[in-house]
Amino acid sequence: MLLLGTSCGLADSEPDAVAPCSLLTATEVSLEAGSTFLQGSESPSEGDHRTLQCPYQSPKGWTYVWTARGAGGTSVGWQEPPRCPDGELENADGPGYRAYTCTTGTNIQYMRVRKGDNYLRVDVGAGAPPAAGRRLGALAAARLP
Question: From what superkingdom does this record's organism come (predicted)?
């Protein structure tokens, strides 16, 4: 008898996303975003359970890190180039990865990264210093396999 796949994911399963809470510490987010942040618990995204998210919260705002792998890249907002409604899109490539940043008119900062078959999205809420999203995204990207 040959088993081709089960709900445990023996065949045709997507590779696991990198644990997003392992990519940034609350201290790093706090230093870049300009407020004291607490790290939340890692969980699957509501829209796509192949995508993992890690929230960071402070009285001043929020930061989220999402990761996906393989075909899940579209669920973290990867497209070439990504959309940047009402904002400024910039190339942010780094060693071994392709990336873009977007800062909206309301100062919400996004960074989207593709490194091999790993995808990363870092979002920083309004009120953070300029380029905080880019610096956090680059730091997290450097830790992707």
Answer: Bacteria
